[in-house]
């Protein structure tokens, strides 16, 4: 179609032969509830003719509203493009050109009537070869034809997409038998059951889900690990009758398989694995479905995600749809068999002693990008695994540790993480993760002799109540971990049922926050926390609520905290410092914090309770010539001795002169404290 020439054709917008009829017809209706409402029908008329002025046969349809109004609505032009494909466009009454399709014809209360019988004949003759799929007459036939053309265009479009994706994924192959064996023997190994008859006898009949044989085993309890006498596989015991009375169950896992391609490319393929046990089935129904395919290119320097495809069985462009969000580093059960082939084939690789597959086996589930980064950046990673610190290695790989605190370029555990042979004797049996390792280091810093059983019990408790290092040290300042664990276990037995422990409302989640609140309030109220009955009250909730109500009493709330005044002498000896320009000093009383915040317009007064209980340290920086005039306020961490913040008027930052003074003070007063603390840790180790 020659668009420019066709749009230049004249349009007679004031035709006198437009048929006369009512433009809008009203209809009265009654709904099911007896309510009356009105609907409108809009009538339009159209004329059709052929144009050959461009050397092509072009069908032109002009649409008007009926006379006597007889307004021109739009012109529709139908023809073929240079490739011989069907084409159309519309010119509206304002002269704007678009390629939209006609609306629903007689649908949506719009009706079209021809100028004459000859009008429909022109359209029918022009679209004569479309009678098999374009039903109707006149504009109705055009609408059906446009719909068919659009469907063909979409089909061709999706076919191109399908062909393109098929070409890009041409190297994809079915899962090798080795992967199926790995799934069965490693990933889903826990999904092996021996269903036994619970008859109370010394021996009972059982059925193995691995080999399917009926065997005789000794009396067991649900959940016990039993070796099948026939296939010699370890299985979990499960009562057969209880299983039959249930609706069955399903075990699910998600795995990642890296399939090598030619050159430096590979495909990260994500699968979901399901083992169904239902309808009394002994052998599981195994269902494996691929969810995501991600093609990657890895040259040893950078891992680039090229394309990601997600499975979508409703997508008309094939089962695999290109995804906009590209991510491959989720921690899944990673098949170890192809890792060396992918990561060791790049130019310049020289760490042939590294076995990626072995590391993946020990650290699964793991993200393969994190795994590669950790192998190349954490020199002591093999030593961690060889010494049984698997959970710590997992956290290092997954970046769940503060790597800035350690030198990961060192190959030995002592030089990188400060783990000595004596430490390994304790850490290896516990197989600590990073959080537990930090708790161990904090415990070691107290210079106490490490009690293995006490530490082991506390690590179990801390994982339940989410206790960090600072909170553990606050416990050790007043008691032992053993007494605290005994207190928690007693509280747990009185306040938690087995059902509570497996639910989202598990009361243990709130235990430690309540206990910390109680200790903080008890410290402010100057309770005797050296008394074990006060430190570990018989009824924690009652003691917590009572202390809270006293602290929030109006009179006490506005009173001074005497603990701050008592800290002054010891803090002054530890932290006070002065040169010719500046000095640093602790607050001598509670009101000093209030005056500091009021003068400098910041919120240091709200830190009073934390200062009183020793969870933070506030120090004042003053000019030597104006010691009574607030200048800058400094917060020091009492555990790490790190400067948390230093703020001046309206929270402004400090100038270089103050920075130089702070550096001098830190080197003179704080670094000796840190060294003595480190020496204490070394002695304890």
Can you tell me about this structure?
This protein is α+β, with helices and mostly antiparallel strands. Among the domains are: 3-154, no CATH class; 177-334, no CATH class; 562-684, no CATH class. It contains 25 helices and 23 strands. Strands 1, 2, 3, 4, 5, 6 and 7 form a 7-stranded mixed beta sheet that branches. A 6-stranded mixed beta sheet has the order 17-16-15-14-13-18. Strands 10-9-8-12-11 form a 5-stranded mixed beta sheet. A hairpin with a 4-residue loop joins β5 (86-92) and β6 (97-98). α2 (117-126) runs parallel beside α3. The radius of gyration is 40 Å and the shape is extended. The termini are far apart. The model has no long low-confidence stretch (mean pLDDT 88).
How would you briefly describe this protein structure?
This protein is α+β, with helices and mostly antiparallel strands and 685 residues long. The longest helix has 31 residues, at 138-168. The model has no long low-confidence stretch (mean pLDDT 88).
What is the secondary structure topology, with strand pairs?
Layout: H1 3-7, E1 24-30, E2 36-51, E3 58-64, E4 72-80, E5 86-92, E6 97-98, E7 110-114, H2 117-126, H3 138-168, H4 177-187, E8 193-196, E9 203-208, E10 214-218, E11 225-227, E12 234-239, H5 240-245, E13 249-260, E14 265-277, E15 285-298, E16 303-311, E17 320-322, E18 333-334, H6 339-343, H7 356-363, H8 368-377, H9 381-386, H10 390-397, H11 413-416, H12 421-430, H13 434-445, H14 452-465, H15 469-478, H16 481-495, H17 498-501, H18 508-524, H19 532-535, H20 540-551, H21 554-557, H22 562-575, E19 577-578, E20 582-585, H23 590-600, H24 608-612, E21 617-623, E22 632-636, E23 643-647, H25 656-684
Helix pairs in contact: 2-3, 13-15, 14-16, 18-20
